[in-house]
Automatic annotation (TrEMBL):
Protein's name according to its UniProt entry: Enoyl-[acyl-carrier-protein] reductase, mitochondrial
A Pfam entry, by short name: ADH_N
GO biological process: fatty acid biosynthetic process
This protein's UniProt keywords: Fatty acid biosynthesis, Fatty acid metabolism, Lipid biosynthesis, Lipid metabolism, Mitochondrion, NADP, Oxidoreductase, Transit peptide
Subcellular location: Mitochondrion
Main enzyme class: oxidoreductase
Listed EC numbers: 1.3.1.104
Keyword NADP applies: yes
SUPFAM superfamilies xrefs: GroES-like, NAD(P)-binding Rossmann-fold domains
Family: Belongs to the zinc-containing alcohol dehydrogenase family. Quinone oxidoreductase subfamily.
InterPro entries, sorted: ADH-like_N, ER, GroES-like_sf, Mito_Enoyl-ACP_Reductase, NAD(P)-bd_dom_sf
Amino acid sequence: MAFCAKCGCQLPSVFSEDPRFTTRSWGLHPGNLLKTSSDKSVKLKQALDCLLASVCSREQRCDLKLKNLELAAVGGSDVHVKMLAAPVNPSDINMIQGNYGLLPKLPAVGGNEGVGQVVAVGSSVTGVKPGDWVIPANAGLGTWRTEAVFSEEALISVPSDIPLQSAATLGVNPCTAYRMLMDFERLRPGDSVIQNASNSGVGQAVIQIAAALGLRTINVVRDRPGGTMVTYGGMAKQPVIASVSLLIFKDLKLRGFWLSQWKKDHSPDQFKELILTLCDLIHRGQLTAPACSEAPLQDYQRALEASMQPFVSSKQILTM
Ligand SMILES: NC(=O)c1ccc[n+]([C@@H]2O[C@H](COP(=O)([O-])OP(=O)(O)OC[C@H]3O[C@@H](n4cnc5c(N)ncnc54)[C@H](OP(=O)(O)O)[C@@H]3O)[C@@H](O)[C@H]2O)c1
């Protein structure tokens, strides 16, 4: 049994073999590390760059490193993917800090969404073929890497004729925006939706999808009238405060939305249908990617720092 030298938290047993690791580390299998120069010549041929996060859980400290890992062999239902681009979202940062609703079993690679291109498929793969673009079916896949071998069911294909930034940012924020517009109130063309943080990735998608549905959006508010207030993020990490008079006299309803829970409550086919609906809007020019700044994977530190800066309104996209 090993314990973190900084905070005393228990480490997975693999880290007791290597005294360099004083914190829990994502994506780090000692067997996969290129430790010696003699190893390097053999392993580098099969290695992929991969962005790893070392997290000291009690200190909430985020310490990311680029590492080379071995690429697994492509088995029957496996898909070899070359990652093309992956955003840095608040949930990625929250996950690394250990304060997200879904924490992957360690070790793991950072990044929950992104787009990749299929390089090769195993003999029993039927849903995708080399050249197809794919995005993660669920959070926790680890998209901040140059290449990976995933199982077929971990991926869904998207059209490769949409812009790269749209594909890389399609699977989380536009899906969240679309579901919130569909699932909480029966909205009809001409109805209004009020949102705060409207310059966020989700907010930009809400504005565009609402417009495509004939809904009006009010994007800066101070007083909220009645209706349903859907909370989907907590950037300030503060409780939501609601006016008692609005709750009583206007029957204000407070609800929450989490895309990962929606996916658990719905079938993979329903998620694919949602993705195709959004791709349709992209094809028609009604949905574009949020404002983005591209950074090569190697510049991840600058990109992650930039992603946490206030008042920037530009999503960092790691390109591979
Ligand atoms: N429930 C779900 O399924 C779901 C799905 C997707 C996203 N989310 C959540 O939605 C939120 C937005 O995600 P995103 O990718 O759209 O983010 P984003 O593009 O990175 O934008 C972040 C937004 O948060 C604002 N912000 C940052 N710090 C703040 C603070 N301390 N107080 C108030 N506002 C602050 C920013 O405003 P400034 O530009 O003024 O700094 C910006 O509008 C995150 O909390 C994310 O986890 C939830």
